[in-house]
Amino acid sequence: MNIVVIGPGAIGSLWAYHLHQAGHRVSVWSTKPHSYFKLRLDESPAIELANNQPRMLQQADLILVTVKAWQVEQALLPIRREINPETMIAVMHNGMGTSDFLIKHFSTNPLLVAKTTHGAYKLSDQQTCHTGKGHTQIGSLNPLGEQCQFLSQVLAHALPECGWNDNIQLALWNKLAINCAINPLTALHNIKNGELAAPSFKQQLTDLVSEVASVMTLQGFDVDESQLLAQVYQVIDKTAQNYSSMHQDIHHQRRSEIDYITGHLLSVAKLHNLKTPVNQKLYDAIKHIETVGRNHD
């Protein structure tokens, strides 16, 4: 397949490398001005991929968008005319809230959304580390996307494990619950994920998950709150030595995905006239840090 990965950050580079190794014709689209992009994963030899070449977009069977949620619109709109209407577009990012934009501007394309628990970290522009093996799920955002179930096999062959999920929205909400619990707390306290296992965070994590579960119930999902909390603690344990993406963004004074994680939760809660004060407090704290950081630039 001809595949373009838009946003070769940590996760984008991980997928670009593995898809290339699986035999696909892979290129990237990035903010770098160079015609080629060098990429090295862990201790493997470096590979060189075409970068920012419109003909690769025009020939693409699949465009895998791995930029942060708030970057999806600004990444895709300038290149919209280069993308053929039959090209599959799959987004893979933390948080929720980009679906409406995709459905509005790419209604003729098969649209898909994926979530992954693989961990990756960029040591430099060219060097990426695969910090934790995980599982990927993919599902459709529109009827055309439902015809692309074979894509889960393509991704699984490149980077196991990957499966098709007919109820991808529930999977995304479950991931949102985990992100709402882990990401803001690790960013605010400047800690690794595993440190949230301390007893001092137990009540706050419980309250955060409880609020998310209430919103999910109003959205029509059958939610087991205790099971959702158990999933949060499983991720805390499995990724104990990792820093969350929001921690890294705040630490490096970059814009985080808070608007598409906790912010999305708050927006949906507001539609149901439901107050979520614990999540609101964390959202306000992260936004304050981002605002102060911008004012100091």
UniProtKB/TrEMBL annotation:
One of its GO terms (biological process) is pantothenate biosynthetic process. It comes from the Bacteria. Pathway: Cofactor biosynthesis; (R)-pantothenate biosynthesis; (R)-pantoate from 3-methyl-2-oxobutanoate: step 2/2. It holds the Pfam family ApbA. It catalyses: (R)-pantoate + NADP(+) = 2-dehydropantoate + NADPH + H(+). Residues 167-290 form the Ketopantoate reductase C-terminal domain. Residues 3-142 form the Ketopantoate reductase N-terminal domain. Its EC number is 1.1.1.169. It is an enzyme of class 1 (oxidoreductase). The keyword Isomerase does not apply. GO terms for cellular component: cytoplasm. Keywords: NADP, Oxidoreductase, Pantothenate biosynthesis. Belongs to the ketopantoate reductase family. Catalyzes the NADPH-dependent reduction of ketopantoate into pantoic acid. This is 2-dehydropantoate 2-reductase.
